[in-house]
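In response to reviewer comment 3 from the previous cycle, which asked for concrete evidence that the modeling workflow produces usable outputs, we include below a single protein chain processed end to end. The sequence was submitted unchanged, and the resulting structure tokens are shown without manual editing.
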Amino acid sequence: MVELFHSTRSTAIQVTAKQAIRQGIADDGGLFVNDALGQTTIDIESLPGKSYQEIALEVLSALLPDFTSEELQECIDGAYGDNFTDDAITPLKAMGMNYVLELFHGPTSAFKDVALQILPRFMAHTTAPEPTSQEDITDRVLILTATSGDTGKAALEGFADVNSTGIVVFYPAGQVSEVQRLQMVTQKGSNVGVVAVRGNFDDAQSAVKNIFGDHTLAVQLATESATRLSSANSINVGRLVPQVVYYFAAYAQLLFTQEINFGDEVDFIVPTGNFGDILAGYYAKRLGLPVGKLEVASDKNNVLYDFLTTGVYDRNREFFTTISPSMDILISSNLERMLYYFSDGNTALISQLMNDLATTGRYEVPAEIMEKIRSVFDCSWADEDQVREAIAECWNENGYVIDPHTACGYHALSTTEGTPTAPRVVLSTASPYKFPRAVLEALGQEAPESDFACMDALQQFSGMKIPENLRSLENQSPRFTDEIDVADMPEYVKTMAARFAE
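The workflow returned the following structure tokens.
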């Protein structure tokens, strides 16, 4: 029997993994979860010496039960090859007494590539359900994504020119790095759209969620453009589960080099805003990986730190634009999945909490649930000065350059205790060349006017090679210059759906 998925807010509608991936978000606004998570575990002792691709097949087979091995192998082979600049895909590097897991060797130099190179391939193996209503009569999918910086380019790269699929990316105007912006607005492909939104990431993400829940709009898109909406954000389970793989890959590398013995716990420090990257670590723990602590590393927008320390999630606070823009988030969507599992599948509670968040901007989790959460998750945060200090300290102590997001994780090494005797692995989420100005200034170097000149100066200073996909942006012309208000996003979606359907 195929294990089914359902919403975090209700078990009324059950769908397969393929259906959950195609749909993206549940009809009631919840996120798809599978109650069988952890019933199948991974044979950890067999992992050392296996390739990333071999580990991916084992892990994804456990998480996506209605995909055949042949389908998964085809997706894996297409996703993880020459498009990554390191054969290990996510290599683990020693950094003093600790380790860094480099997740930025994909085509857009950010960790999102690991999931977004395979998600379009998953999507290609899904099929539209038999129509039960007018909105189900569709033959194409339009991917909608709100991005705080990195997801947008990685999604565009993954879905560009995919048959029967269009993608529209919304990013907050003026709140991504110049390199991140150029990566998006120069994207090639006949089925892609990029638009700046006047507001912050949370504004754009909330608007996208509202669009997904707009039944009238869904019917319009189905009848006028034969189009159904889906998501490439980590609210889509097909975007989340590929991230589970690199936790196992990191552990396998530590076993292979005999840094640990089988069964030893490992702590993972994860820079995160939307909670997807670290939730993948919790999924790995449920699948049998010996995870000690999962440490949330936040920037100045420390809503997750406050939640984990107080039990109150409150987004009614000042929003800060920082030098770690991909973490400038006050509504952490994937927290909903974590709360579902730690409440033992209490959909009524999750529905109540999410309603509280929507109506008041805050919710409070019962103390007994928070106690269980804190047994797994630890937390820290770094302000702007501490981020810069961490970049400089990492270079001075290790001769290793990190970006501002990874710096939040590096800062956690000295502010959280972790599991006694356990190795600590910092997830490095992006190349420092995506934020060359901030990194160069943190290293005490003069930053030239151009971000590309900053790249050259950083390379000369550090000896670390600039990824060609970033350096070549200087000579590319922007294709997309639209800027709209949040209120105009639904109309923009209709326009783009009609354009892609022509």
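The mean pLDDT is 94. We consider this sufficient to address the reviewer's concern, and the full set will be provided in the supplementary archive.
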